[in-house]
# Entry
Amino acid sequence: MGENSTPAHIGILKEHEAGIPVSDLSRKHGVSEASIYKWKARFGGMDVSEAKRLRALEDENSKLKRMLADAMLDNVALKDLLGKKW
# Structure
């Protein structure tokens, strides 16, 4: 199972909600119990569309953080350049 297969994660969580023990699910799907509990904390109660929206928002947030960091570096470089001229 790939790291980004959110629909599969939610499917496993739905099986758990139906009463299948985590230990059985981990053996069936070849993942650790810790992974299932991590997915439950992150995606518990969501359906696939909500999880995809969450993933899109997280991607957008990381892109905006990178843009902010680049702008701050440019700002520092410009301040250094102007500080040396005057």
